[in-house]
Write a structure and sequence with these properties.
Elements (H helix, E strand, L loop, with lengths): L5 H14 L27 E11 L4 E10 L6 E6 L3 E7 L2 E2 L2 E3 L8 E6 L6 E7 L7 E4 L11 E4 L19 E9 L5 E4 L12 E11 L5 E4 L2 E4 L4 E5 L1 H10 L3 H12 L7 E5 L8 E2 L4 E4 L12 H8 L7 E3 L5 H20 L1 H24 L23 H18 L1 H14 L3 E3 L1 H11 L2 H7 L1 H6 L13 H15 L14 H9 L6 H11 L7 H14 L1 H4 L2 H13 L3 H13 L3 H11 L5 H11 L5
Parallel strand pairs: 1-11, 16-17, 17-19, 20-21
Antiparallel strand pairs: 1-2, 2-8, 3-7, 4-5, 4-8, 6-7, 9-10, 10-14, 11-13, 12-14, 15-16, 18-19
Bound molecules: zinc ion.
The site of zinc ion has 4 residues, from helix 5.
Length: 625
């Protein structure tokens, strides 16, 4: 176990706060801690709600208009907001001009916007516009959409990119309600993380309302040629017309997912749950924007085998959106809980054997990550309680927060029994709804649940503050993967054409597990397998990702053949999901093919969202031309 004793830390911190004059932080319990990724001053001046009025200009690739911040009474004489690359034209307080200044620009955090306030001020209006290249915004030309006729805009605000399109307190610990008015080109539909229209308006003017308070990273906007289809009483899907039917088929179980999660963890409080299918350049699998999950089209495979991603984003409606990590150092509270809830939803809907496969994948992912970080001299990054000061919180998005977090919670479940753990979780979500949570506050709640003996068996402190993966990590137990292992043995030791018959019924997960185990021994036989199952050029992005990795690492001559080489280039150019493209660039780099990686990247980069291109830039040492 490493790290300082946390309970003493938080005691000291609370004592310090109590000594601070005029401290209001306790009016929004549970206790807050300073956010190293925000300039804002919520301990002095608190915001209640936001009204946005913006024009979406596809030609200039900018948003322009105003943000009205409504303040909580009793504020200080200054309001400090986060901004990044915004042009601030003027600021008014209750209709009168207010002096403001922008601080020094920091490459990670942007600039602090400091507004001097009259006492009292109810509303601060900021007239502003975004610039071309604002990092949250991805502007796609018509040619990069499914339909090919209309341009498309979508945002990705997590982790600290909301400030690149809205001047705001860009900290996950600060919540606000919002309304918005948008002016978009006629013929396009606009959507937000709010109550949404289902029909395109001829005049291009849309109004939005979000009645539940949300942190800035859940601010979201999409504009495109989109249509809506209902899937059930509270669920539906938005997509480009050419994608809609496939999406409807893929997400048929969504309404049932919603009611299943409610039966486990209490009422869904956000009204509707809809999914927007984005173009393939979306950098993540999904983004849990409240009321409207943004999802990658790479989960639409036709066989519903990747819908666990929807379960994951839906789970965020409890863990993350309802009870939110107070700072990005506590990110594992958002993601570890969400993976745990995702697994429970999948188990309830599709059975324990299916969920066990997903759990085994999570186990393999975290083992690999721990190994890679440890070998790379970054063992401290394997701690659940992170220290992200000075770093981009997006770099914390990975198997430690997600899968190590999940296994810790799974171990608690296995130690104290599911009934007690479920009752705890239900109360936890209910009592902390619309509040933020940091690691120490969670541990003190956990302390009230666990006996001393439980804590000793689990090793809570080691799990949260220690590095690596504790030895008592629950092992993977998947009978379906055990069957894949047997098939692999049979296949390696016999005639490669004589594959076991059950292989035809394998899900995406079984194929991914199988291909991940191939190495240089299998190159001849794998080529035969490719001819039979057509991995090269597969429309299934999960299979494509592991297949091309194998080709790059173990069968370079096969990978250099025209068919394979073209299919891989097309894959890496079309898909911008970071989880899929990063391993391929990494494999090319690690096998001495960095020139090829750079060549491919040059073609693909214009199609990537900044979240993805920032990661690949760093990996390949790319300098923007
Ligand atoms: Zn998540």
């Amino acid at each position: 176990m490493t790290g300082s004793p946390p309970k003493w830390d938080s005691f000291f911190f609370v004592a310090l706060l109590l000594l601070m004059p005029g401290c209001q932080w306790f009016s929004n319990p549970p206790m807050h801690k300073p956010d190293p990724h925000s300039y804002s001053n919520p301990h002095e001046t608190r915001v209640d709600s936001l009204h946005l009025s913006l024009k979406v200009d596809f030609d200039a690739q900018t948003l322009s208009g105003s943000a009205d911040w409504f303040l909580v009474a009793g504020h200080a004489s200054v309001l400090i907001l986060d901004t990044y690359g915004l042009d601030i034209h003027s600021v008014e307080g209750d209709g009168q001009a207010l002096p403001f200044s922008l601080g020094t620009h920091d490459a990670l955090l942007g600039q602090a916007l400091e507004v001097s306030l009259h006492q009292p001020t109810e509303r601060v209006r900021i007239h502003y516009s975004t610039r071309k290249g604002a990092r949250a915004l991805q502007w796609l030309p018509a040619s990069q959409t499914e339909g090919g006729q209309h341009p498309y805009l979508f945002t990705q605000s997590q982790s600290i990119l909301a400030r690149t399109w809205i001047p705001c307190m860009d900290s996950p610990g600060q919540r606000f309600r919002y309304t918005a008015e948008l002016d978009v080109p006629p013929g396009l539909l606009a959507l937000m993380s709010a109550e949404n229209p289902t029909e395109t308006r001829a005049d291009g003017r849309y109004s939005f309302r979000m009645n539940e308070p949300v942190p800035a990273y859940l601010m979201a906007l999409a504009v495109g040629k989109l249509e809506f289809r209902s899937l059930g009483e509270r669920t539906g899907v938005y997509a480009e017309p050419a994608m809609l039917e496939r999406a409807v088929h893929e997400f048929a179980d969504m309404e049932q997912m919603l009611s299943t999660t409610e039966s486990l963890y209490g009422p869904y409080v956000w009204g509707r749950y809809d999914v927007l299918v984005l173009p393939p350049s979306f950098p993540f699998g999904g983004m849990e924007n409240p009321r409207l999950t943004f999802a990658t089209p790479t989960i639409i495979t036709g066989d519903r085998s990747l819908v666990s991603l929807i379960a994951h984003e839906l789970a965020h409606s409890w863990s993350g959106n309802l009870v939110t990590n107070a700072t990005w150092d506590d990110f594992w509270l958002n993601e570890g809980f969400t993976v745990y809830v995702e697994m429970r939803i999948m188990e309830a809907l599709y059975g324990s054997e299916y969920a066990a496969m997903l759990s085994a994948i999570a186990h393999a992912d975290v083992l690999e990550e721990v190994k890679s970080l440890t070998l790379g001299g970054q063992e401290q990054k394997t701690r659940l309680a992170a220290h992200m000061r000075g770093e981009d919180p997006d770099d914390g998005v990975g198997p430690i927060a997600y899968d190590k977090g999940y296994h810790f919670l799974l171990l608690i479940e296995q130690t104290i029994g599911r009934a007690r753990w479920d009752a705890f979780l239900k109360t936890y979500f209910h009592e902390n709804a619309f509040k933020s949570m940091h690691t120490e506050a969670f541990l003190s709640r956990l302390d009230s649940l666990l006996s001393t003996e439980d804590e000793r068996i689990i090793g809570v402190q080691e799990w949260v503050y220690g590095t690596g993966l504790p030895v008592n990590c629950p092992p993977p137990l998947s009978t379906r993967f055990a069957a894949v292992d047997s098939s692999l043995d049979l296949w390696r030791n016999g005639d490669p054409l004589a594959l076991p018959s059950e292989i035809d019924a394998w899900s995406t997960h079984e194929w991914v597990y199988f291909i991940r185990q191939l190495d240089e021994r299998d190159s001849l036989a794998a080529a035969e397998l490719d001819r039979r199952f057509r991995f090269t050029g597969t429309p299934n992005a999960e299979i494509g990702c592991v297949w091309y990795q194998w080709v790059i690492r173990f069968a370079p001559s096969y990978g250099n053949q025209r068919l394979c080489s073209e299919a891989m280039a097309a894959y890496m150019t079309r898909i911008g999901r970071r989880k899929f493209i990063m391993p391929l660039y990494k494999a090319l780099k690690e096998t001495g093919q960095i020139d090829r990686a750079r060549e491919l990247y040059k073609q693909a980069r214009p199609n990537y969202h900044s979240v993805a291109s920032h990661s690949v830039d760093a990996l390949l040492g790319w300098k923007e031309e």
